[in-house]
Specification:
About 45% of the residues lie in helices and about 10% in strands. It contains 29 helices and 20 strands. Strands 1-5-7-8-9-10-11 form a 7-stranded parallel β-sheet. Strands 16-17-18-19-20 form a 5-stranded parallel β-sheet. Strands 2-3 form a two-stranded antiparallel sheet. β8 (about 245-250), α11 (about 260-265) and β9 (about 270-275) form a beta-alpha-beta unit. α2 packs antiparallel against α3 and α5 packs antiparallel against α6 (about 100-110). It is globular, with a radius of gyration of 26 Å.
């Protein structure tokens, strides 16, 4: 196909779409099912209606080929485990008795059975359920979900393309099952897995699929020769199948690099590449391998992970270059639109001119369709759209919101001294222990306590003016009083105020900082039924006034035990926001750090002796390619130290991280120079404690003993067993006892029981240490 005919054939498509619905109907239906208010049939009906609505929105917008299989009750990687029969033995009976309940048990656990481990999906804030595999794993085919959803779309008269997690990525995301040697490599199961994928492909072809998309984002990371050889074998074997649809192998989040020649030569009919991340490198790499003659290329030129309007002229130039490198060029977002909110038009509180700078899933869909039309029919056919787009880009670039000379001058004046504590850790810890007087194995929580219906109602009442500010604050005071009283009675050593006034750990601060925009309906899935509204960082950032001091000091006035001040760190503020794309991330991080530094210093001045600055996103934001990591970690750790370095030696600085693979960043954790770090460890069986020990981490650490992402209550014996495992890696004088994460999403009954057991476990192990 010539470049001219390739352009004429250009079509618009997407890889995935937000699952939740306009009013988060899926979340409500699933949580209703868990509570027994919604039966299975009603839940399935809601899911069917949401899929139909999504496909209809895409089709009405001009999308030529809709995705199927991307919809999930909880997580698409978990769906893949079900598809290939990789059900952990402890969950097998539950799945056989009731598939839906067994599915949710794998995701959330039950009182008797632990869930699958959960961690971050590459460098996003989406969490997936980690497959558990071992040398005895037997894969079996279950393509029911994939076939049924394809048939739903085809019955509506739509052109549909099933989307599956590719076999190589699936195995690379997996971990050895409990009891299996840590040296076991799940990729050794490839020859067992490929026949199952062959059967799924045959089933989808029989159901009417012309194309099937196999997502292989793991191939944008640095891969070993053995992993590349496995990729070669995978797509040689799948491509050689006769009973299959056409195969489209998709990658995103970065450049394919050394995996591109492997896939370009593979007997598959198409590739999908990300031309927003490392776009120039992907273009160069594609040209270097001779392009994709005779094959379909889906070009991801619209950023599927951020919310700024696309530069249509720039994207058209990229698409024009690609026309000479493939047999057919189609247009898409860079990845699934799962990672952005549904519709910017629903936002009524953002100034209309600023709203035109933003593109959520529906607006990105329109951009994709516009680009495909311009590519196929010529730019004259989209002249009005191009002119409006240029005006929107110019409006944003010239806005006073984006630049504050005072903020920029302060950031430019930062020196290395500003990022260093005044005393080394050995001297600080002596001063802190004398000041705080804590027992061995001190107990604490991560920060938040359950956000009850009463608290959410209070916030809604305040917004609707059913109560005034004074009435709202009385409710907050009452909640803080209950939280402090419970912690004292339970016997926790370092308390928190419970964060009842906070809607979200990033949004709460963003709403009080200049430069941020807040949304009302910008929900994005984090995991399962947990949705967040990432704020939008649009301009230079500063802190007009204290944000947390009042409620922290009020809580401290109710107790003689130390109450932690709780802040969200600069890297996490960026990672869990839609961050500006018009300056380097490191520059933005420094601005955030300076604003937070002011808050830290004000907390200390108000008498707060323990201050926690959470950085759960430090590992999440780690670049996928090793060559890019040193520069990132340099500015990320500097930003944390800039936030915290101004306090006195006796003020104890904590940080917290959760649900990520920490082994890659242990040196960076050390470089933060925090006095205490708490980390997720319950689901991973204290893996992070071992990683800290292997590194020689010299400071205090609290690997979690209570998995807060599950409704199950850990027993005293279970928590004590995890503590003993932690003590194998971390000396008792440096080990803290805490949950994995904040308790915001949990209910009070399970929270009370779990924390009582946690404190009892700490006492048990203290007695064992005293008697040894």
């Amino acid at each position: 196909m010539t470049p001219k005919s390739a352009a004429a054939a250009a079509r618009a498509t997407v890889y995935g779409y937000p699952r939740q619905g306009k009013g988060r109907e899926l979340k409500k239906a699933i949580e209703g099912y868990w509570k027994g208010r919604v039966d299975a049939d009603a839940l399935r009906t809601t899911a069917t209606e949401l899929r139909r609505t999504n496909w209809q929105q895409l089709t009405d917008a001009g999308i030529h080929e809709v995705p199927t299989g991307d919809f999930s009750y909880y997580d698409h990687v978990l769906d893949t485990s079900v598809m290939v029969g990789a059900i952990p033995e402890r969950h097998r009976t539950a799945v056989e008795l009731h598939a839906l309940d067994g599915y949710f048990a794998m995701a959330r656990g039950t009182q008797d059975v632990a869930p699958l481990e959960m961690t971050k999906w590459f460098d996003t804030n989406y969490h997936y359920l980690v497959p558990e595999l071992g040398p005895d794993t037997v894969f079996t085919t279950n393509s029911t979900k994939q076939v049924a959803e394809l048939k739903e779309a085809l019955a509506l008269g739509l052109t549909a393309r099933p989307v599956l997690v590719g076999p190589v990525t699936y195995l690379l995301l997996a971990k050895p099952a409990p009891g299996v040697s840590a040296d076991f490599d799940p990729l050794t199961l490839l020859d067992r897995l490929l026949p199952v994928y062959a059967e799924v492909l045959a089933d989808l072809r029989a159901a009417g699929a012309e194309w099937v998309q196999l997502d292989e984002p793991a191939l944008v990371q640095d891969r070993t020769p053995a992993e590349l050889n496995a990729t070669t074998r995978t797509y040689r074997d799948l491509g050689a199948l006769t009973d299959r649809p056409k195969l489209l192998v998709a990658s995103y989040f970065d450049r394919l690099g050394e995996a591109l020649p492997v896939l370009a030569k593979a007997p598959v009919e198409g590739l999908a590449l990300d031309f927003t991340e490392s776009a120039a490198a992907n273009l160069d790499d594609l040209a270097a391998v001779g392009g994709l003659p005779g094959k379909r290329l889906i070009a991801g030129v619209v950023n599927g992970r951020n919310v700024w309007v696309n530069d249509l002229t720039k994207s058209l130039a990229t698409l024009g270059t690609l026309l000479g490198l493939a047999g057919r060029v189609d247009v898409a977002a860079s990845c699934s639109l799962l990672h952005v909110p549904l519709d910017a038009a629903a936002e009524r509180d953002i100034e209309p001119q600023i709203l035109r700078w933003l593109a959520f899933a529906r607006q990105k869909t329109a951009e994709i369709v516009t680009l495909a039309k311009g590519l196929a029919q010529g730019t004259d056919t989209i002249a009005a759209e191009l002119a409006a787009n240029r005006a929107d880009l110019a409006s944003r670039a010239g806005s006073a919101l984006t630049r504050d000379p005072a903020v920029r001058a302060r950031a430019a004046a930062v020196t290395d001294t500003d990022t260093r504590r005044s005393r080394p850790y050995d001297e600080r810890t002596t001063a802190q222990r004398a000041h705080l007087g804590l027992p061995p194995l001190p107990t604490t929580t991560i920060g938040s306590f359950p956000q009850t219906a009463e608290l959410r109602t209070a916030r809604a009442d305040l917004r609707a003016r059913r109560i005034d500010t004074a009435g709202y604050e009385e409710r907050i005071k009452a909640e803080i009083g209950e939280v402090i009283s419970f912690q004292e009675k339970t016997g926790l050593d370092v308390l928190v105020h419970g964060e009842p006034e906070r809607n979200d750990m990033v949004q709460y601060f963003a709403e009080q900082l200049t430069g941020y925009l807040a949304t009302q309906h910008g929900w994005v899935q984090s995991y399962g039924t947990r949705y967040v509204r990432p704020p939008i960082l649009a301009g230079d950032l500063s802190r007009p006034e204290p944000m947390t001091v009042r409620w922290t000091t009020y809580a401290q006035s109710l107790t003689s035990r130390p109450v932690k001040g709780m802040l969200t760190g600069p890297v996490t503020m960026l990672a869990w926001s839609f961050v500006r794309d018009d300056q380097p991330l490191g520059d933005t991080a420094r601005q955030v750090a300076l604003a937070l530094r002011d808050e830290v210093n004000d907390l200390e001045a108000a008498g707060t002796s323990v201050i926690q600055v959470d950085e759960p996103a430090l590992r999440e934001t780690l670049p996928l390619r090793a060559a890019d990591r040193e520069a990132y970690l340099a500015w990320a750790t500097e930003a944390f130290r800039l936030t915290t370095a101004g306090v006195r030696p006796e003020t104890q600085v904590h940080t917290h991280m959760c649900y990520a693979e920490f082994g890659d960043i242990v040196q960076a954790i050390d470089d933060l120079d925090a006095d205490v770090i708490s980390l997720e460890a319950a689901r991973s069986h204290m893996q992070v404690a071992r990683e800290l020990a292997e590194h020689g981490y010299p400071r205090e650490a609290g690997p979690g003993v209570y998995d807060i992402h599950s409704p199950r209550v850990p027993s005293t014996a279970e928590a004590a067993a995890l503590l003993r495992k932690g003590l194998e890696a971390i000396p008792a004088e440096r080990l803290w006892v805490n949950p994995d994460c904040g308790l915001k999403t949990r209910g009070w009954p399970e929270t009370r029981a779990s924390l009582e057991n946690l404190v009892a476990a700490a006492r048990t192990v203290r007695e064992e240490l005293a008697g040894s």
